[in-house]
Amino acid sequence: xxxxxxxxxxxxxxxxxxxxxxxxxxxxxxxxxxxxxxxxxxxxxxxxxxxxxxxxxxxxxxxxxxxxxxxxxxxxxxxxxxxxxxxxxxxxxxxxxxxxxxxxxxxxxxxxxxxxxxxxxxxxxxxxxxxxxxxxx
Length: 137
Fold this sequence. Notes:
Shape: globular
Distance between the termini: 29 Å
Number of helices: 4
Low-confidence stretches: none
Structural class: alpha/beta
Radius of gyration: 14 Å
Number of strands: 8
Strand content: 15-25%
Largest sheet: 6 strands, mixed
Mean pLDDT: 89
Order of helices and strands: EEHEEHEEHEHE
């Protein structure tokens, strides 16, 4: 059922959001390459990470194609222990000229671990838990 998930690029005014639903990383990467200029990095204002930050739905290849100053993780961590810390580390370990903010709607073991993580590239990032708050892009 995750393979049939809806992915959307939402544009309004000067803002571009990438909402990855629960889609598979290889499907998203292939479509971005086909429709948005090959292997060029695509910058968005915010990216909702696929399938609650699951390692099976986000790949190094996909992350080489997309970036944003805001990443959104929607999960309470129960059931399947999402998000996977490896996905979060891969997001923040990449070099960037801007600070990335990773928003979670619940505190999870992975979000707690990320708070203590130091980016391998030295990229700046911040972890925010916004269980009952709106996120402004």
